[in-house]
Amino acid sequence: MTGPTETPREGSLEAPTRHALDWKSPEFYAEEPLLDELERVFDLCHGCRRCVSLCDAFPTLFDLVDESPTFEMDGVDRKDYWSVVDECFLCDLCYQTKCPYIPPHEWNIDFPHLMLRAKATQFKKGERKISHRLISNTRMSGTIGSIPVISQAVNAAAGSPTMRKALEKTLDIHRDAHLPRFHTDTLRRRLDDHQPGRFEVLEAGPTRGKAALFATCYCNVNEPDIGEHLLQVFEHNSIPVRLVSKERCCGMPKLEQGDLKTVDKYKRKNIPELAKLVDQGHDIVAAIPSCVLMFKQELPLMYPDDADVQKVRAHIFDPFEYLHHRHKAGLLNTEFKNPIGRVAWHVPCHQRVQNIGPKTRQILELVPGSEIIPIERCSGHDGTYGVRTGTYAKSQKIARPVVSRVKKSEADYLVSDCPMAATQIGSELELKHGETSPLTLLKLAYGL
Q1: CA torsion, points 254, 256, 257, 263, in degrees to nearest 10?
Q2: How far from chain centre, in Å, is Cα 395?
């Protein structure tokens, strides 16, 4: 702590750290202490304003201050704090890329986790919208949406103006928001008979050479091709891949709603299965950055003393992070058959905050003649934020600079490791090849 004559440091010289979430404590949900902490942090953010360009949470906060009678936080009505909370979609970029006052700085600001605490408090009091709970229930929507006939009906409804108006009224889904298609031929059905390739299992860095694929709700039901392409690319690199036998949603959609009870429920289903696979010598991979982040960061912070959670954290990888470790050890297949040209690569927030560096770019750049143009800015989608009636327009506004960058790049391909972000960006563009996954692009380069 600083002495009476000292001023606080402008940023911390130590490596950033993150405190465990004390979410099981009653104090975590106590409203008055929460409001006191919101006021403290909001006041410090008001004095800094570095994060104004990230999302609408910060402009909302700064407008409240600037329009108050005192031009300071003491002039802002506490009931208006919740409007700031509602705009945060836990992308984590303020913590990772902008804020100079994160722990171990004495001001100890963790804006995303403070917003999570506020959302959890709202949820516990029953103040989160029922419609938001429903559209964040990926298990329910995936189960219903993958049933034959119903799947076709759901997809048809997504393209019907009349049905979209009804969805807007009942589920708060904006009539113009792009909705993912549902497939009856899910990834799990496609890989039901898959047997991992018989390869020599070789370690490389922290990777052990055989992987278990956590399918994820989205890749299982909405984008099964991406999961298949991951498997093909890995086995082309002599990495045997099996599917995780049983899984539930990773919990990220529920975390973003503050529904920590359901996050805990999913954790109790997933972690024993994943920990068992780790004990059998498998690494875990998933094609959706948010799912990897959930097991790599959020669950370990919720369960710092759970050995199995920490075990999974140490052995779950982003697919391109995994392939990069193989490349460093000289084990990556670099015999590419097709060019990929100029590629605009959108870097998803939930991949950036894993602190793994631009591994997707580094692998795609191995393809002869490729040019990878990274775009490190939020797409504004975040699962439900990009489709809800109240936030759809703001989501499009956040995405606009990314769309502009892609247009200026004149790229042959637009890719994003997050398929939802790719769709959000691509829907505003006329693309020669459409938007796609970098795993699909790598498969194309290999000529698989």
Answers
A1: 30
A2: 15
Tens digit of each residue's pLDDT (9 = 90 or more) over 389-400: 888 888 888 888
φ/ψ (deg, to 5) at 408:
-70, -25
d(CA 380, CA 392): 9
Q: Residues 31-68: pLDDT tens digits? A: 999 999 999 999 999 999 999 888 889 999 999 999 99
Rounded distance between C-alpha atoms, residue 415 and residue 91, angstroms: 19
Q: How far is the CA of 379 from the CAs of 136, 252, 292, 338, 375, in angstroms?
A: 19, 17, 18, 29, 10
Residue type, 59: P
**Comparing 195 with 318, which gets the higher pLDDT?**
318
- Rounded CA gap, 232 and 411, in Å? 25
Q: State how far the alpha carbon of 184 is from the alpha carbons of 8, 155, 179, 188, 366, in Å.
A: 58, 11, 16, 10, 36
pLDDT of residue 228: 95
Decide if pLDDT at 197 tops 90: no
Cα 366 to chain centroid distance, Å, stands at: 26
Question: Structure tokens of 436?
Answer: 């796609």
The CA dihedral of 188, 191, 195, 196, to the nearest 10 degrees, is: -80
1 — pLDDT class (breaks 50, 70, 90):
very low
For residue 438, give the nearest of 335, 347, 325, 334 by alpha carbon.
347
Of 171, 173, 180, 240, the C-alpha closest to 216 is 180
Burial 148-174 (b: 16+ CB within 10 A, else e): eeebeebeeebeeeeebeebbeebbbb
Instruction: Please choose, from the candidates 379, 392, 413, the residue with its C-alpha nearest in 3D space to the C-alpha of residue 173.
Output: 392
Write out the H or E segment, with its range, that includes residue 284.
strand 283-285
Higher-confidence residue of 173 and 437: namely 437
Task: Give the separation between CA 17 and CA 355, rounded to whole angstroms.
Answer: 12
Of 28, 388, 401, the residue nearest 173 (C-alpha): 388
